[in-house]
Amino acid sequence: MAQFVTAQEAVKHIKDGDRVVLAHSIGEPQTLVRAMVENYKNYKNVEISHLLALGPCDYTKPEMEGHLRHNSLFAGPGCRTALAERRADFTPAFFGEAPHFYEKYLPVDVAMVTVSPPDKHGYCTFGVAVDYSKPCAEMARTVIAQINKNMPRTFGDTTIHIDDIDFAVEADDELYGAKPIALTEVEDKIGANCAALIKDGSCLQLGIGGIPNAVLNYLHDINDMGVHSEMLSDGILQLIRAGNINNTRKQIHKGKSVVTFLNGSKDLYSYVDDNPSVEFYPVNYVNNPYVIAQNDNFASVNSALSVDLMGQIVADNISSVRQMSGAGGFVDFVRGATASKNGISIVALPSTAAGGKASRIVSEFEQGRPITLTRFESFYVVTEFGVALLRGQNLRQRARALIEISHPDFRDEMKEFYEKRFLEKY
Fold first, then answer.
1. By the 8 A CB rule, do 189 and 218 touch?
2. What is the pLDDT of residues 215-233, one digit of tens each?
3. In the 8-state DSSP scheme, what is residue 23?
4. Which of the following is catalytic: 28, 97, 230, 377?
C-alpha cells in the first residue's frame, strides 16, 4: 500500500548513486521534480534520465554538478544547453526501445511519475503519458507517484494499482500542453504537398508542430482514416470530430485511435478522459514496426532538419556536438509504414534554414554529422517546392528529384556537384 507523504518527504527516498527516471512529456511529476531540485545538496551522483521533458529541467543547472546529472535519451529544449556544455549526457535510443534500454542498460532505481487518482478498486492510470513511464514504474525499485486530479483517466494498457506505488504525493499541477502556433506560408505549402499523398482509408502517424498541423488542415476531404501514432494532437482531434477519422478501415484496433502519449490543449485532454475510443499503450508496442505494419495504407509524416542528395536524413542534430532532439519515433514509424501494405513514409522540411541563408537539402553532409535515417530507408521527401520519391530510385534519380524540390537559390551549386559526382550533364 502506498504511503501518502509530502513531496519533500518522498524525494528523501532517492539515494546517492540512484538513477531516477522521470515520466515522459505531460507525465512529468512537476511537484516531485521541484522538490528533488530543492533537495539537490543532499544527493551525490544521482542520475536523472528521461526522453522529452517540457519543464525547465533545473536539474541541469551548473550548480547541480556532483549532485544531479542528466542523461538524456531525447534532447528537449530544457536540456540542450547542458548537453552543449558537456554538463549532461546523451544516450542514442529509439523511442520504441526506451523500455528495453531502461530494463537492460539503464536499470531504474526510482521512477517518478504522474497518475490519475485511484478508482474505487484502487487503480490509477498513467493518463496521457503511458509510453516508457508505465514500463519503468513496473521495473523500478521504488515508485514515487504524483497523484494529480488533472491527469485524465485513460483506456488501453494504462493502469497501476495504488498498492504498487511506494510513495504517493497528492498535488494538482496544471498539465503542460502545446500552445497553438500560427502556420507560415512555407509550412502551409508543405502541408498541401504532403496531404496530396494521403488517400481515403489511410492510417495516420503525425507528430506535433507547424508541418504536421499544416498537413492535417488539408485532410478534411479524406475519409475513413485511422490513427496509430505515438501521439495525438488537436489537429487530429478536429478530424475525429468531423468524422474524417473513424478508424473503421484499420486491421488492428479497429474503431480505436491508438497512441502512447499526448501533447496538446485542455480540450484534447478532456476528450480522452474516460473515453474508450482512444487507447494508450506502452511505446514498445505502439512504436513497434511490426505492429505498425499490420495496418494497411499506413501514412507516416515526420519532420527533419536536413537531407543530402543520396537521401540520408538528419532529424535530431545540428552537428556532432549540437543535439536538438533525438531519434524519437522517427525511424520506428518510417520502418513500420514502409512495411505496411500500400504504406508510405513522408519526411517533410522547409527548403531553407537561417532565414533563407542555408539550404536544408545539401549536396553532402559534413564529416562527422550524425545521420538519423539511412539512404536505404528514405521514401518520400517533401518541401514547399514539391515531392521527391526516393524509394526504388537510383542515386542519380534521387539527386535529380531532390534538387528539383530544393530552393532555387541553391540549385546551381547542387547541379554542379551532381555533374562532378555522376559524370554527366544535369
1. no
2. 999 999 999 999 999 998 8
3. P
4. 230
